[in-house]
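Hi, here's the filled form for the chain we discussed.

Project: internal
Contact: R.S.
Residues: 293
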Amino acid sequence: MSHSAYPTSSDLGAYLKGLNILDPTTQDAVLAGIDLSQLVGAAIEDWEHDVDWRPFYAPTYAITGATNTSPIVVTCEDHPLRTGMEFLISGVTGNTAANGYGVATRLSADTFSIDGSTGNGDYLSGGTLELTRRFDPPGPATRFNWRGGGKVLALGGGLLSVSRILVGVSSSYAGYTLTAGEDYWLEPADAPYRGYPYTQVRFSWHRTGLPQSVRITGVWGFCDSIGGDVWEAILARAAVLCYPQISLTVGNVISSVETLSTKVSYAKALSDQKAAWEKTYAEAVAEHKFAYM
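And the returned structure, exactly as it came back:
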């Protein structure tokens, strides 16, 4: 089963309860004393670091607001932008000055401003955010301030789709837009059929230019949905991070609970469960770890 987002603190709480390793009479109090949200976030960071796909998950970033101010402040829930990152916005109506390439100043998890921008009307609707990455032209040439000489550009990560590739970008020139299927091809060509992203660009001719003069905009990541094995692996990693606090609270071996109608045993050592979590996580990392294809 695939998921449309990473696990949350609620998912982690349900996961731990569902394993039947906590006394149901005290489990709510135990979990309330643990910052599950922080631990899930740490587990996601560990996952992306360990599989070396950054980002791993590539959601759609929808714009829901753009202020008619200077600079324009954009509202985009859970956007990935950090201060100084480049991006492309398209599809905003009303305040159309928000569209186009820009450089972000991060304001919060859901807002950022566009450096040097000025609004030209009230926001009406629409808008999609895509991330932009800069690269040196591929190849061995490093003469003076010149780079390139090669045809194949390794992306160092996953690219699910591309909306625009510009070359020759500089502080004084916006760059030349390349045409897919004529000027470049994404590789491996069969990556989508194998369930993988693209990992390199092959140009039709040898590219040369200034450092960081190749600008690629698109959907960066390994996947646009979270597979069941990855979902469980992240929860398992978060559970491992919870382990010290849980073990301090309930002890290494959970005792049994008996009522008039039933008896539930919690004799399994938490350390054994921790080993199972670690195994689940390690196997998923090995399956998804980045490698140039």
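Let me know if anything looks off before we file it.
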